[in-house]
Design brief:
By secondary structure, this protein is α/β, with parallel strands linked by helices. The protein has ten helices and 15 strands. The strands form four sheets. A seven-stranded parallel β-sheet has the order 3-2-1-4-5-6-11, with helices on both faces. The protein has a four-stranded mixed β-sheet with strand order 8-15-14-13, with helices on one face. Helix 1 crosses helix 7 and helix 2 packs parallel to helix 4. Bound molecules: NADP nicotinamide-adenine-dinucleotide phosphate and ligand G4F. The site of NADP nicotinamide-adenine-dinucleotide phosphate (NAP) has 26 residues, from helix 1 and strand 5.
Length: 338
């Protein structure tokens, strides 16, 4: 039987690397889009990379979300069965520094893919997954589900909301099988170093081993619903295997503060942290030494205070549920370091 062809935008990212591995296991021919970079940006997919002279099922192509020609050329050449748009400037804080670029990549980039599917008349052949985010809920109260209204609080979230609605519009206007996954925070051992979970795990592991470095953080009272990326890419795939295209919330339904996360990591490393002070003066001590400090530069101009997802719809229709909880997630992240 002919292999299904999948095209992944953002294959070098956390989710892209897990998804590529999942699809290879499912016997897909996997194509990924990578950006030209002066240093290697393919570390997360090193273990599945095969020299193109020998590869039968894994191929990388240069492209960029800001370059409509590269997107259109790839889609018209490959005519994929499934396209996963995981490419994004995905850092919320950075989106305040790079608002136009974020809108171009995360918002217009999605439109470029949908337009390529449409103009190449691939509606009957190509299914499309859009990596939506719980950040779109912004200030809406938890639990958030598919019916909760969106109140985005960053250029990132606003750009993703454009991508969300343009995906729905192309589904309705042109009959494209297109789904929005509204995924809550998900982490893993290959999470980027500037996201708060990985920043905490990396720093505490080093401090435990004797490093003198300190961990500088912003708002440690915001609440997040943290899952494991390995579980969440399974949900992406499931969304594209249904009879009709729909949008789904993917979450764990559990919520913790950043401070809870620090304490959980510390506990697993057998470190007792004592907290003193409040607000910008709050500090964490380990064995009498100051190891955690608050730095106002990590506060965002507008913060999303509280996210907790209700994934009832995904459980009912996709038969999806998370296999990890925060405990197993943290264990997995620490295990890959020590
Ligand atoms: P990530 O690790 O930051 O990966 C982002 C990917 O996008 C990387 O492969 C990156 O390439 C690529 N990319 C960035 N700008 C690009 C451009 N201009 N052209 C082409 N590719 C570009 O993000 P992630 O955590 O895997 O998340 C995957 C997707 O899900 C993102 O769209 C993110 O916004 C969304 N999302 C993530 C979460 C989460 O908690 N992880 C939750 C909800 C939604 P380089 O490697 O070259 O930088
Ligand atoms: O780890 P974060 O940067 O993740 P954030 O902003 O929730 O965004 C992530 O999840 C979204 C899904 O909801 C994705 F769409 C998005 O692409 C990304 O993957 O920050 C989590 C919380 C925030 O409240 C932040 O203000 O941690 C707080 N925080 C406190 N100190 C910090 C820091 N965040 C970062 N990155 N660095 C800090 O030093």
């Amino acid at each position: 039987m002919k292999k299904k062809i999948a095209l992944i935008f953002g294959i070098t990212g956390q989710d892209g690397s897990y998804l590529a591995k999942l699809l290879l296991k499912k016997k897909y021919e996997v194509h990924g889009v990578i950006r030209r970079s002066s240093s290697f940006n393919t570390k997360r997919i090193e273990d599945i990379y095969v020299d193109p002279h020998y590869s039968k099922d894994f191929f990388l192509h240069y492209g960029d979300m800001t370059d409509a020609l590269s997107i259109n050329n790839l889609i018209s050449k490959l005519k994929p069965n499934e396209i996963y748009n995981l490419a994004a400037q995905s850092h919320v804080a950075v989106s305040f520094d790079l608002p136009e670029y974020t809108a171009n990549v995360d918002g217009l980039g999605t439109l470029r893919i949908l337009e390529a599917i449409n103009t190449n008349k691939l509606q009957k052949k190509t299914k499309f997954y859009q990596a939506g985010t719980s950040e779109m809920y912004g200030s809406s109260s938890p639990p958030q589900n598919e019916k909760t209204s969106f109140n985005p609080r960053s250029p990132y979230a606003v750009s993703k909301l454009f991508a969300h609605w343009i995906t729905i519009n192309y589904r309705e206007a042109y009959g494209i099988y297109a789904c929005n996954g509204i995924l809550f925070n998900h982490e893993s051992p290959v999470r980027g170093y500037t996201f708060v979970t990985q920043k905490i795990v990396q720093a505490l592991c080093k401090i435990k081993k004797g490093s003198k470095e300190k961990l500088f953080l912003g708002n440690i009272y915001s609440k997040r619903d943290w899952g494991h990326a390995e579980d969440y890419v399974k949900a992406m795939w499931l969304m594209l295997q249904q009879k009709t295209p729909q949008d789904f919330v993917i979450a764990t339904g559990e919520q913790y503060t950043v401070k809870n996360f620090i304490e959980l990591v510390a506990k697993k490393l057998d470190m007792k942290i004592n907290w003193k002070g409040q607000g910008l003066k709050e500090k964490g001590y380990y064995k009498g030494k100051e190891i955690i400090k608050i730095d106002k530069k990590y506060f965002r101009p507008t913060e999303v205070e509280s996210l907790r997802g209700d994934y009832t719809k995904a459980k009912r229709l996709l038969k999806w549920k998370p296999s990890h909880n925060i405990n197993t997630l943290v264990t997995d992240m620490i295990k890959k370091i020590i």
